[in-house]
Amino acid sequence: MRSITELLHDSPFFAGLPDPVLEQLAGCARTARFAEGQMLFSAGQPANDFYLVRHGRVAIELHNPSRGTITLDTVHDGDVVGWSWLVPPYLWTFDARAAADTSAVEFDGACLRGKCDADPALGYALMRRVSHVMYERLQAARVQMLDMYGAPM
Amino acid sequence: MAEKSILDLCGLQGLIDALQGRGYAVLGPTVRDGAIVISEISTLDDLPRGVADEQDAGHYRLRERGDEALFGYAAPVQSAKPVFFPADEMLWRGRRGPEGGFTVEPAQPQPSPVALLGLRSCDLAALSVHDTVLTSRGLVDARYAARRADTFIVAVTCADPAGTCFCASMGTGPRPLAGYDIALTELLETEHRFLAEAGSPVGEDLLAELPPRAVTSDDTAAADDVVRTATARMGRVLRTDDMPEMLYAQARSPHWDEVAERCLACTNCTMVCPTCFCTTVEDVSDLSGDVDERHRVWDSCFSQEYSQLHTNFVRASTGARYRQWVTHKLAAWIDQFGTSGCVGCGRCITWCPAAIDITAEVDALRAASQQTAGGQHAQHH
Amino acid sequence: MTAATTQQPPVSRDPMVPRPFRVVASHLDTDDTVTLSLEPMGSDPLVFAPGQFTMLHAFGVGEVPISICGDPTRPDPLMHTIRDVGNVTHALVSAEVGAVVGVRGPYGTGWRPGDGVGGDLLMVAGGIGLAPLRPALLEVASRRDEYDRVVLLYGARSPADILFEDDLRRWADECRIEVAVTVDYAPPEWDGRVGPVTTLVGRAGFDPPRTLALVCGPEIMMTLTANALLGRGVAPHRMRLSMERNMKCGAGLCGHCQLREFFLCVDGPVLPYSQLAPLLDVREL
User: Fold this and answer.
1) Is the same domain home to B177 and B262?
2) What's phi and psi for B211, nearest 5 deg?
3) Which of A71, A73, A150 comes nearest C157 by C-beta?
4) CB C182 within 8 A of CB C91
5) Are B222 and B263 in a shared domain?
6) Is the ipTM of this complex over 0.95?
7) Which residues lie below 8 Å from residue C41, measured CB to CB, with a gap of 6+?
8) Largest CB tally within 10 Å, which of A2, B206, B318, B337?
9) DSSP state, A85?
């Protein structure tokens, strides 16, 4: 069984952070497993968590009464999920469902915020990584919004 | 064999007769509807005698010269382009057949050979540009090639350039440079005569048929004088030594949109340009839908549909279309064909209803580019 | 002497006259896309290179440029995948077996996947952009040992819009081609990836300095993919894009398809990104 620090060390998201920092972050984390179909979180619920997907697939979904359930994005091995824990009012905006059996590292968002507040250098290092992922997801969302392959308009 | 000869008026008529005798339809400048236009001629009386033109931006008038000159005007309304490259020509005719099939009969024009009399040096250069564009690359415009194959060209030195002329800038005139069978320089002093110079074996051959008259040093000096005077009287100048880079670098200039505030996107400039070659295709069906003719018709980069991509238009703005035309003509053409697409005939200036002047717009773009370059220079210090 | 006689070019060489081809099969790929198989009527099969296109003519309606999607080593029947987006394409997708369509070409530059031999080959397709890449994939699959890693990243609008599913399976299972498919929108039952195809570039298994990348799709998809490839360290001259513009002749004569100095029908449609990059970011060029 590998330690959480080791798991973080090997993940692309945390790559490059020194081990003492990873040990601090690991203090907020535990491993978690989700069976296919199980919800990681649901829209409108308090956003307490942040996930690093080790193996599996997580679908970010939106349910709309008139259009049914739409998958907006999928998250795969090595990706991270969830940033509502960073931004007030700390509520999830979308649903996250395990689309396959998924193992993850689950962080306590309040704990992470506390460490970031206490150690701005750690906070900055973590925020840089989170903002990079947010940037990529925003880009992806904009590209999807183009409906590039839709009927010419 | 005769490389050079002097023709008097009878000699010039003899030239026309000889061309007709060889089976050519002779086309030359004539006056119609207050303008010089190219049409079929058979005698010197068909030519515009004693007529000059005034051309300026958005302005064209004929006036009396007060002499007997036959070629005393500048570029006619159209170049020789429509002679070889009709504004509308059928490519093929299809007939619906049994079992969902159809057959295609290609149009095969059997053009009678054409002799052009009095072709300006600008239009002669344009013909050579068109030859390059339409016949020198992998795929050849077969109908153009067929029409062009048997052409006989009697070019003429432009003695009285108009206000919109800048062939001297473009290196295409006023004296015919190449591509002619015979070049004439009209001499009016002391005696109305023409210095005729052969530019091809066929031209030499034909000159030899006419009554010989030796060329004196006075004749050649008088011809040189005509060229010198005409060069000095060019109405406009266009600087091209910094093409294509200068225009490429100005692709984002706001000046294109400033021109667009005046440009009507009417396509006149492209219709009178002797080198514009863009075409589209149109299908014409009979009422039953069983016979379908495919036509190739002149098109213009100023029209919206020209750049249609699905339901959008790549060049939706007039500024982008003006940029396309000028950048293609003066810059991209060099990369594509090794020559400028502009021969300095000035027609786009004359026939622009908004009096937009390509030479002035290029100067403005260059001035803007030098300001930009200067600004960057300053920032580095 | 009479006017010099010059031989007229034979009419069969006239680039503007189509050859009749009969529709021998019509396969409905998705609800708006059809693959037509065509056989020449009384003339030779049309030999083509992967990435080339033809001008397809629907009698009485008009003509459009369509990329060839079949096997370059077996040009008979000639195959085109056509999306129903306008009058002419509507007539073409509606053509029944036995109908006759006109074909001119083939025209344009090809993908030349062979330039990637000895290294990795990456193909990125968006939407119907998979069709012009299919001949290259078939060629590469038949000479698979000459390449190291071969990767296909394919983005479609939704699972129902995925083209050539049998090919995708076969390339992955039998031809050692790493195939990753993603869709922009999906119902919950879709068990694949969701997200734009550009997001696949970041972690795809290719070695950037040794990679030749062939990219085909809507222009915006190609420029975003090129950016992602730049981020991975693929050199611009090792990325090839297939450009689309209005085309009337396919032979460099009508002028419509110009992108500054390029006639995209003759100099393209496939051009290196190093030549396209300065042009694609100028609006309305």
Assistant:
1) no
2) -55, 125
3) A150
4) no
5) no
6) no
7) B101, C19, C20, C21, C22, C100
8) B206
9) G
**Alpha-carbon span B6 to A148, nearest angstrom:** 70
On whether both B140 and B29 belong to a single domain, the answer is yes
How confident is the model over C71-85, as pLDDT tens digits? 999 999 999 999 999
Assigned domain for B82 exists: yes
Residue B379 has pLDDT above 70, yes or no: no
Domain count, chain B: 2
For residue C14, the chain B residue with the least C-alpha distance is B142
Would you call B142 and C285 a contact, using CB atoms and an 8 Å cutoff? no
Domain A4-146 has CATH 2.60.120.10: yes
Burial status of residue B45 (CB atoms within 10 A of its CB: 0-12, 13-18, 19 or more) = exposed
Clarify whether residues B222 and B123 are in a common domain. yes
Residue that terminates a domain, selected from B201, B232, B263: B232
B100 to C98: CB separation less than 8 angstroms, yes or no: yes
Domain hosting B61: range is 4-87+109-232
Asked whether residue C11 carries a pLDDT value surpassing 70, the answer given is no
Same domain, B144 and B256: no
pLDDT at C3: 38
DSSP string, C139-206: HHHHTGGG-S-EEEEEEESSGGG---HHHHHHHHHHS-EEEEEEESSB-TT--SEES-THHHHTT-S-
The domain segmentation of chain C, as residue ranges, is 17-107, 113-242
Between A68-72, B39-43, B259-263, C279-283, the lowest mean confidence (pLDDT) is in: A68-72
Dihedral of CA atoms B107, B112, B117, B121 in degrees, nearest 10, equals 40
Q: Which of A61, A78, A144 sits opposite C196 (nearest CB)?
A: A144
Flag whether B114 is in a domain: yes
pLDDT at B377: 46
Q: Which of B94, B101, B146 is nearest residue C8 as measured by Cβ atoms?
A: B146
What integer pLDDT is reported at residue A1 of this predicted model? 67
Query: Based on the domain organization, do B197 and B336 belong to the same domain?
Result: no
Contact A140 C218 (CB under 8 A): no
Q: Residue B34: pLDDT above 60?
A: yes
- Residues B192-247 pLDDT 10s: 999 999 999 999 999 999 998 999 999 999 999 999 999 999 999 999 999 999 99
φ/ψ bin of B54: left (φ > 0), alpha (ψ from -120 to 50), beta (otherwise):
beta
Token readout for C156 is 């479609």
- Are B173 and B251 members of one domain? no
B313 shares contact with chain A (CB less than 8 Å): no
Which of A61, A67, A71, A136 should we substitute to test contact with C (largest number of C Cβ atoms within 10 Å)?
A: A71
Q: Is C40 on the interface with B (CB under 8 A)?
A: no
Q: What is the mean pLDDT of chain C?
A: 93
* Class of domain C17-107 (CATH, top level): mainly beta
CB C119 within 8 A of CB C145: no
- End-to-end Cα separation, chain C, in angstroms: 52
CB contact under 8 A, C218 and A148: yes
The span from the CA of C27 to the CA of C175, in Å, is 24
Q: Are residues B208 and B305 in the same domain?
A: no
Residue B331 confidence (pLDDT) above 60: yes
